[in-house]
Amino acid sequence: MAGLTANAPLITGLARDLVGCAGVVIVVTNPVDILIRLFATTVGEAARVYGIGSSTDSARYRIALAARHQVPPSAVRSWVIGEHGDGAVICASTTTVNGCRADVPLTFVRSQLSYRTRQINAGIGRTR
Q1: pLDDT tens-digit profile of 68-102?
Q2: Is-catalytic flag, 84?
Q3: Is the pTM of this model over 0.70?
Q4: 47, 61, 84, 97: which is the annotated catalytic residue?
Q5: Contacts of 39 (CB under 8 A, 6+ apart)
Q6: Residues in the chain where the model's pLDDT stays below 70
Q7: Which one of 24, 63, 90, 105 has the largest count of C-beta atoms within 10 Å of its C-beta?
Q8: How far apart are CA 46 and CA 27, in angstroms?
């Protein structure tokens, strides 16, 4: 949520410049879910607006679970929704590995998701 104050005016300005746009817009910022909503509301109904925060967490979740179950990530069907990062919601009840319902050790998965974020921040730092 730290980026909301800084990023909301920028997102609103970009959306105003694109009012009536009928294309696809991908929002890459934090907090992604709130700012997607802000952009979509401002730009209007014609645009299709997507964010990648939850998509990134979903990919990290699949990779962690694949390693845990010793299968390729493509064998895992799973999603993370909601707020990106620590506030993410792991959809454990709908997760499958090779088409079968999977055991999802939530403590392990959460530790892997937060570890990966810390690893990226240590390597490149936070970007603005």
Answers
A1: 999 999 999 998 886 666 677 888 999 999 999 99
A2: yes
A3: no
A4: 84
A5: 11, 12, 14, 15, 25, 27, 49
A6: 1-2, 53-54, 82-86, 116-128
A7: 90
A8: 16
